[in-house]
Design a protein that fits this description.
The chain is α/β, with parallel strands linked by helices. 39% of the residues lie in helices and 14% in strands. Helix 4 links the parallel strand 4 and strand 5. The model has no long low-confidence stretch (mean pLDDT 97).
């Protein structure tokens, strides 16, 4: 099982991964709070030549589901741009949060916007890398907070080859039982392509997305290891940097 970590956005993700003893790393290609277009990565040749795999996370500002044209249109553009930049460094996917509509808006319209994203890009030859939709922690009108909502989203986009990223902190904060979440997610998506294995600083069903190291949060870290084992997918830790090496060592001990 390949275990890795989200690393700082600097010019040497492979070096950071090597120092952590990681099998893979997750990176942002631009400031995650801005709409910047990613340029060529300064370490592209090193990344392509390395045995350490790379996955890219899209900016947090992206909301493909939005019914607001001023947000949805730049979100579609950003997903395409970041996917192309991810393909250029040999990344195995682009993680994109499920997004949401606003209070009073129809969530089905947000699902339809996701379908249109894939449909329109298919007409252009695809994204170049798999799009990995990530479950989110809060929001009553979110596309991917609850497993039943994920099922409705997958009915619309599953046939386009969408992948799924399961975040344990998000699922916990959303009020989803981690003991069987892998089985329930697979029942509606048929797949889990990546796990963001994070503990939570907050209580169950809090709708708060605050990550903690595996030994430090509200979730029993043995349960987190069980989720990772059941998912059988590559693991990315998005935990605080100070305890990340210990998190990796714990998982290697538990998962082999």
């Amino acid at each position: 099982m390949r275990i890795g970590a989200h690393v700082r956005r600097d010019d040497d993700p492979i070096g950071q991964g090597e120092r952590l003893g990681a099998d893979l790393v997750q990176v942002f290609l631009t400031d995650p709070q801005k709409w910047d277009t990613p340029g060529p990565h300064p370490r592209a040749e090193q990344i392509l030549a390395s045995d350490i795999d790379v996955v890219v996370h899209s900016p947090y500002v992206v909301n493909v589901a939005s019914l607001n044209n001023r947000l949805r249109m730049p979100s579609r553009k950003a997903v395409a741009e970041h996917a192309a930049a991810a393909a250029a460094i040999g990344a195995f996917g682009l993680v994109v949060h499920g997004g949401h509509v606003r209070d009073g808006e129809n969530p089905a319209a947000g699902v339809e916007n996701w379908r249109k994203l894939f449909e329109r890009q298919d007409d252009k030859g695809g994204f170049g890398v798999p799009i990995l939709v990530e479950n989110t922690a809060g929001g009553d009108f979110a596309m991917a907070r609850y497993v039943d909502a994920i099922g409705r989203l997958w009915d619309a986009i599953g046939d386009y080859g969408a992948g799924f990223c399961l975040d344990t902190c998000h699922a916990w904060a959303a009020g989803e039982d981690l003991a069987d979440v892998v089985d329930r997610v697979r029942a509606v998506t048929g797949r889990i392509d990546l796990v963001h294995l994070n503990n939570s600083r907050d209580e169950f069903d809090s709708a708060r997305d605050r990550h903690a190291n595996l030994a430090d949060g509200q979730i029993d870290r043995a349960l987190l290891a069980e989720v990772a084992a059941a998912a059988g997918a590559p693991i990315i830790l998005e935990t605080p940097e100070g305890g990340m090496a210990e998190d990796i060592a714990y998982l290697r001990e538990k998962l082999g």
